[in-house]
From TrEMBL:
It comes from Sciurus vulgaris (Eurasian red squirrel). This is unspecific monooxygenase. Residues 1-27 form the signal peptide. Pfam families: p450. Keywords: Endoplasmic reticulum, Heme, Iron, Membrane, Metal-binding, Microsome, Monooxygenase, Oxidoreductase, Signal.
Amino acid sequence: MDLVVVLVISLSCLLLLSLWRQRSGRGKLPPGPMPLPIIGNILQIDPKNISKSLTNLSKVYGPVFTLYLGMRPTVVLHGYEAVKEALIDHGEVFSGRGSFPVPDRVSKGLGVILTTGSRWREMRRFSLMTLRNFGMGKRSIEDRIQEEARCLVEELRKTKSSPCDPTCMLVCAPCNVICSIIFHNRFDYKDQHFLNFIQKSNESLEILSSPWIQVCNNFPVLIDYFPGSHKTFFKNVADLKQYFLEKIKEHQESLDMNNPRDLIDCFLIKMEEEKDNPQTEFTIEALVNLVNDLFGAGTETTSTTLRYGLLLLLKHPEVTEKVQEEIHYVIGRHRSPCMQDKSSMPYTEAVLHEIQRYIDLVPTSVPHAVNCDTKFRNYFIPKGTSIITSLTSVLHDSKEFPNPEKFDPGHFLDKSGKFKKSDYFMPFSTGKRVCAGEGLARMELFLFLTTILQNFHLKSVVDPKVLDTTPVATGFVSVPPAYQICFFPV
């Protein structure tokens, strides 16, 4: 009986503490729905469609509001003006990285995506410099993508116009590009080791987008004490990291300080230069995590966009026909597309932008955090508070993009048919934390898609009108539904 009394008293104290903490900050933080003890506002968020929940709440509480995800307050930015004001006008203050418990567990505060402060700045600077300068006077990144696009076309030809699921091939192509930058080698599309590698990465992304992971991120205590798909995620990442470590050891044995072959070599050279600096961020563990970040970001986001893009082109054959007309007029049949062609292809450019806008790949981006106590729109946001930016609310703004739920390349074309830029185009986020690989991703999307459409007519196995383009998951990323496609040579 004494134990029961102790438990009741402890639980009561916990509830009172939760209520006190939540109420004590509400006069300073932006407005928001009243949280319940311990669980906060979790019942008001649909884990299968977080963006829709945030939109509904913004209609009640405005473009800047507070949610309690568990006992932690999180400030939500909804709409272009709020996102721009925070991430661009006050970019340095909002450049911290918010809590993301499941992936945080495997990153251990290292890498580039989930780090913050001086460590993040150091790793981002190194990553950007290496991506920009890569080629070292040998092959440029554009050359690598063009070569991989030709390999992808050959692989698509092997389907002999039969119905196929393009997922694997569309993952292999960008994966080989990032592998050539990181490891200095590419893999055959039938290499079983390579396919297992890709399968683990693809599965991990789908797990990160599942409702269960959203629950775990809000209640981290579940991670250690409950079974679930997060265990598979941890196992997959551990296997990938072990592979990366083996590749790093191979590089150490063959490293030529005067002739770096890839990103790993560049990092190892930096390690050697800073070997006497006890505060250096350049360590083997940091390299493993950086490679894991770049590999994941450089493979899955681009491949998912390509896969979703082909589905939309199947759904809208009239759009595909116009793109192919432009390709044949500007590029023709007998040379590979190159980045110089893009400026002469406004409709294709508009279609690429509309694909990214429409699919809304990363609906709420990766959580940000404020680096210091800050006053924002007359509200007080304490240092370390997590910030959620609704990219959906920007990409689907009805004033900027009429009928935002409709796939329409006209959203990026002016009355004369020229490409029209938009400040609301933020698929890679914006500000200090904008995706470091944005330039690479844009290049890959243009070259892969134009090369595919230069060589193939796309055919759906069902009536295009009945194709469903609704994502099957909208957690961390928007995952497209599975579909079959036929590639008929032009």
